[in-house]
């Protein structure tokens, strides 16, 4: 597991702490400065090292996502049949039969969705536990100089908040991305089967709009998330240092300075 992020430049607007007993050294990067991953593919490969031990569970989750996505497409299709073939002609017995079929489809979809959420949550929790164990083990091998040069609160933020973000990605985002992609492909195929002309007209504009909005929203989201994590590390570092140095703060009557610094941290 790689070492925590190397030392970052101190913010010129940050006033010094008195003695910095909670782990001195420079503060994390200022809020407005951009932080870019040095090796995204390498990070994904390291994450796969943990996930590959749970390939069977991931395969089952993928199959469940395929099944629920298909059922989510079958439901609206059956609704259309119910309107066209039974409600408009007034065929109540046929409407009752297809209503029961729709109910079974939606119940099965809900059951499979619960099962896939349960499985992916188990996978993500086991993965996060392994990552945290390796991170804590790595911390035991670092020198005292490293802890003196990095705020303790920032290190704790990486062990808690950053790892929890990985948990959220594994337990929520991966399922949503996979389900969305499968549903989109299935919906396009169903549209082409029902009405090719209207489907082609719709599919011409949808990719361009999705590409435009995805790039615009994705770019702003990444920038905001990096700023949030940088600011959170700075804030956690300052809170940890202030609590550790509370006797020093009170001895030198620096409570108001600490509050003013917290407002801008």
Question: What does it look like?
Answer:
- This protein is mainly α and 265 residues long.
- 78% of the residues lie in helices and 0% in strands.
- The protein has 8 helices and no strands.
- It has helices at 40-51, 55-87, 92-140, 144-149, 152-194, 196-244, 246-251, 255-264.
- 13% of the residues are buried.
- The model is unreliable at 1-36 (pLDDT under 50).
Key features of this structure:
mainly alpha; disordered N terminus; 8 helices; 265 residues; 78% helix
Briefly, what is this?
With 265 residues, the protein is mainly alpha-helical.
How does the helix and strand content classify structurally? mainly alpha
Please summarize the sheet with the most strands: none
The tally of beta strands, per DSSP, is: 0
Terminal CA distance: 30 Å
The rounded Rg comes to: 26 Å
Instruction: Tell me the overall shape.
Output: elongated
Estimated helix fraction: over 70%
Q: Which runs of at least 5 residues are low in confidence (pLDDT < 50)? A: 1-36
